[in-house]
Amino acid sequence: MAHLTAEQVDQFWREGFLVIENVFDPETDLDPVIAEYRGVLDRLAADLYAAGQITSTYDELPFSDRLTKIYAESGKVHAQYFDFSLPQDGITEETPFWTGPAVFNTLRHDRVLDAIESLIGPEIYSNPVQHVRLKPPEHLTPRDPNTGAVQLGATPWHQDNGVINEEADNTEIITVWFPLTDATIENGCLAVVPFSHEDGLLPHCPATAENKSGFGVHIREQHFASDQAVPLPMKRGSALFLTKRTVHSSLSNNSDHIRWSFDLRYNPIGAPTGRGAFPGFIARSKENPEAELRDAKIWTDLWVEARRALAVGDNPKFNRWDPNSPACA
Ligand SMILES: O=C(O)CCC(=O)C(=O)O
Ligand SMILES: [Fe+2]
């Protein structure tokens, strides 16, 4: 069991974040995930090779070099192949995603759920706002042909509350971020602004072609104490817990290897998740343990069904922000 101490719970709510070491056993918890993703990369390589977009499947390269090479040669970051979520637009019945058993076990990991239970109680829903992030070295990452920006780089300043819909503004959503390989200042670890969660939901600016401060929904630096930001290098096995209002970002990957992380979210069962078009599941319930989802295949089926519905239906709205608001000037 890894329930948090009373001091850790206090620190989390006071500062807005908490790093816990040894949440995961690197060999028994994280290596199976890495092994599973080798198969995903094999599939991507085979597909791109068959489509004539790469000249070799690069089987002989280690994972990091192989992924980087395949992205660079094909001129595209294929993040969606690996992600255990769907994109926010352009979904078709063929949109790839990966919801394998090793990933599923990680979402249901006892020590993660114990820590979450210490923060929000024992009725725990796995929120579908969740990602794997495999960030190649920035100097080798393909760039957008129109803007020249790297296709996947530093994550701009934001609160996770800013990237979900209003209906979940009162849901107690906890983010869990952890690296699959050590996260360092050089390779693009997370940075957080302590105490920033106390100032409510800040104005975010959606991505536009003219964004100077990076791509994706972000907060302009005049709206928070950016000089108070602290980078959080983390060893593999550690996990970072964030409130949904803690301002955070990630640094650029200036190393020669990928930066690899998962970010998961949990909220009390029954509360709006903020992305109702995507499926979550009951990860832990003391009241009704039979309602817990324990089968990775069913989890995959939920995502396949959501993809089917989104492929034919209207695209849901995923954020509330206006690029022309004064806060984005
Ligand atoms: O890993 C990153 O670059 C960003 C992660 C993030 O924003 C999150 O986990 O909420
Ligand atoms: Fe975030």
What would the keywords be for this entry?
329 residues; alpha+beta; six-stranded antiparallel beta sheet; three-stranded antiparallel beta sheet; 6 helices; globular; binds 2-oxoglutaric acid; binds fe (ii) ion
Folded structure, characterized:
With 329 residues, the protein is of the alpha+beta class. The protein is built from six helices and nine strands, in the order H-E-H-H-H-H-E-E-E-E-E-E-E-E-H. It has helices at residues 6-15, 26-50, 63-74, 101-107, 110-120, 296-312, and strands spanning 17-20, 123-135, 174-179, 190-192, 230-232, 239-242, 248-250, 259-268, 281-285. Strands 1-6-3-8-2-9 form a six-stranded antiparallel beta sheet. It has a three-stranded antiparallel beta sheet with strand order 5-4-7, with no helix packed on it. Helix 2 (26-50) crosses helix 4. It is globular. The termini are far apart. Fe (ii) ion is lined by residues 158, 160, 248.
Question: In brief, what are we looking at here?
Answer:
This protein is α+β, with helices and mostly antiparallel strands and 329 residues long.
Q: What is the makeup of the main sheet?
A: 6 strands, antiparallel
- Spans where pLDDT lies below 50 across 5 or more residues: none
Overall outline: globular
Mean pLDDT: 95
Strand percentage, roughly? 15-25%
What's the Cα radius of gyration? 19 Å
Distance between the termini: 48 Å
Quick one: how many beta strands?
9
Helix/sheet category: alpha+beta
Bound molecules: 2-oxoglutaric acid, fe (ii) ion
Instruction: Encode the helix/strand succession as letters.
Output: HEHHHHEEEEEEEEH
Q: Strand arrangement, largest sheet?
A: 1-6-3-8-2-9
Helical percent range?
A: 10-25%
Count of DSSP helices?
6
